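Summary for the steering committee. One of the milestones for this cycle was to obtain a three-dimensional model of the protein with 2'-deoxycytidine-5'-monophosphate bound, which we needed before selecting residues for the alanine scan. The sequence and ligand used are listed below.
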Amino acid sequence: MSDIKPNKIIIAVDGFSSCGKSTFAKAIAARLGYIFIDTGAMYRAVTLYALEHGAIRSGIVDEEAVVRLLGQISITFRFNPQRGASDIYVNDDLAEGKIRTIEVSNCVSRVSAIPEVRQKLVAMQQEMGRRRGVVMDGRDIGTVVFPDAELKIFMTADPAVRARRRYDELKAKGDAVSLEEIERNVRERDKADMSRAISPLRQAPDAVVLDNSHMTVEEQMAWFMERFEGLKN
Ligand code: DC
């Protein structure tokens, strides 16, 4: 595409949970021919592994046990041509379909607040973006993982709108969930993500804010392309 900037850059997409960050970041990556990396999926994958290996019982996260498991967790993304997107694998096991359950969602904030977990995943993310040409979505990409990212976007949307989006998504998959439970989870995660001691969710000073409460994906793309084109000047 002739209008694409030739030098590959890093685009950091941070923001609240269930804002449609991944949908947005995925669309940007497809448009630019960049690699898309969903860092939330990586924290979810560690949480899933911890659940499956007894480091989380009855919703209680045993931090030391999670740290002990870290050495045996290897995370990879592999492109799935049928989905047109990458699937996440933990130690060669496909984890994609198992990381977005409410059980994982309820524990992931606590797992992602463990310093050793962040250290390991941030290092992996920095390696994945080393050659640039990536769109990475998460909470700390523009502040910690790639503070030198050329374009930083901070996404937000009304919590009630976000809860409804996640509810529709889970319901479409056949999960029995209540809208109230989802909204509680969204608000609790906002609070936990913003108040954790290490790498809390913060808007980088040089990030541009995108509130997509009332925007379609097409409108968000148009908004993005305007900023991206602006980088050339
Ligand atoms: O984007 P998500 O909802 O799938 O993210 C899952 C959790 O992982 C979220 O509660 C916060 C955490 N997370 C993080 O701490 N840092 C990131 N870069 C990405 C996600």
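Key point for the committee: The first strand starts at residue 10 and ends at 15.
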